[in-house]
Amino acid sequence: MNSPHMSLEEFRQHGHAAVDWICEYLRTIETRPVRSTVAPGEIRASLPASAPEHAEDFSACLRDFENIILPGITHWQSPNFFAYFPCNGSPPAILGELLSAGLGVQGMLWQTSPACTELETHVLDWLVDLLGLPAFFKSDSTGGGVIQDTASSSALCAILAARERATAGRTNRSGIDRRLIAYTSEQAHSSIEKGLRVAGIGSDQLRLMPVDERCAIGADALAEAMARDRRAGAVPFFVCATIGTTAANGIDPIRRVGELTQRYGAWLHVDAAMCGTAMLCPEFRIHNDGVDLADSWCFNPHKWMFTSFDCDCLWVRRRADLIGALSILPDYLRNAATESGAVIDYRDWQIPLGRRFRALKLWFVLRCYGAAGLRQLVREHVRLARLFADLVRADERFELALDPPLNLVCFRRRGEDAINQRLIDKLNAGGKIYLSHALIHGRFALRMSIGGTWCEERHVHQAWRFISETEP
Q1: Element spanning 462, H or E
Q2: Cα 378 from chain centroid (whole Å)
Q3: What's the rounded Cα separation, in Å, for the pair 156 and 443?
Q4: Domain 98-363: which CATH class?
Q5: How far apart are CA 125 and CA 363, in angstroms?
Q6: Which of 1, 18, 231, 420 is deepest in the core (most CB within 10 A)?
């Protein structure tokens, strides 16, 4: 009987074809309409109703991929993609993913692949130094770093660790303490509320604080809310401060927030999902002032640091808090290395048991770009954002919603919200660029997020010409 497996020679042949396809795709990506225009259900209607009974040649798969799947792709890697946030890939990261897939590592324990664990620990220690983070986040201290899939998972892990610290571990044994209260800004990512729901604490226990004119959390309002809850017998246990809110790139005053969390014994989690990459540059670390008061800090290399999705880096001040909240050791996972206490088992630092070898692509990116190359690109993207903001200021038909602190520019056409809604609908329908929107201080604004791997100054000028020449 013939083996149903693809032979290694066939794999070599088709692998070359797939890599060639990716290279040509990236070379020509800016010629493609940025956003997919397929109708709901159109892709599924193009697929067979049932799976094939007999094997098909991979070349047929690649052909259908191009003819059926590609029309339904919104091109996040396009230099004309300015929506949401960068979700960057790069050649070193892609190759790291390929090797990781080839190895097929399941890194739940140190024992299941020592290199998977030790490379991750070492690379995250590198990043503590590169980002100017406190030394207590390094693995030779009480804390340490771990790669999660996204900042949403990091938020949930931090909430669970904070919950168990606030209740001395009782919650894991006997259920939720309804006195627990969490706080964040009304501009914070929705993952904070979702994390509280998943943790069994609930949305009613979350206080969303108002923001100031820069879309940063109001520290005075936070102080009043925490004091009021404490007087009512509640327990302020968790605060999330944000460096770069999703909607507006608002940057919370970390030090003032941290001083409040210390006063009440609450956990301070800092979500720097996109803008944490800016901390590679010493001149932008002013936004991280107060990080020495944080219990946890995370950012996404898969956004602005050219590392393919998914890859979020989370550090904790005290690893015992995280492990205490998440560790369960069934007999079938016991082994001599774990029992020795000399190794890290990252299964205890995350929600799922299994984990991918994400550190490999991150290692490749850091080595192939170098710190100097990464800083150069970050500085260039901030320069381009400021250039775009100047173009907006120079056109009396437009206005900035707020001054951009880093690489996100929020702006609008002067007039009613409906005008801006029509404008963004026309822009995105044209396929030349893709923007997203936000409500900032109750008003509709367009978001120009600059930070893509392949974005250059000419793409920013092209985008502005298209924006300024489009009548809403």
Answers
A1: helix 457-469
A2: 16
A3: 30
A4: alpha beta
A5: 12
A6: 420
Cis peptide before 310 (omega within 30 of 0): yes
Cβ–Cβ contacts within 10 Å for residue 85, how many? 24
Ranges for all domains in the chain classified under CATH 1.20.1340.10: 8-31+36-73
Rounded alpha-carbon distances, angstroms, from residue 76 to 14, 41, 68, 229: 25, 21, 18, 43
pTM above 0.90, yes or no: yes
Other C-beta atoms lying within 10 Å of the C-beta of residue 39: 9
- How far CA 135 is from CA of 109, 131, 231, in Å, comes to 25, 11, 36
- CA atoms of 387 and 8, how far apart (whole Å): 51
Find out whether 243 and 213 touch, Cβ atoms under 8 Å: no
Task: Specify the fold of 371-469.
Answer: Aspartate Aminotransferase, domain 1 (3.90.1150)
Our measurement of the distance from residue 258's CA atom to the centroid of its chain's CA atoms, rounded to an integer in Å, reads 22
Q: Where in the chain is the domain with CATH 3.90.1150.10?
A: 371-469
Q: What is the pLDDT of residues 368-378, one digit of tens each?
A: 999 999 999 99
Over residues 112-139, the pLDDT tens digits come to 999 999 999 999 999 999 999 999 999 9
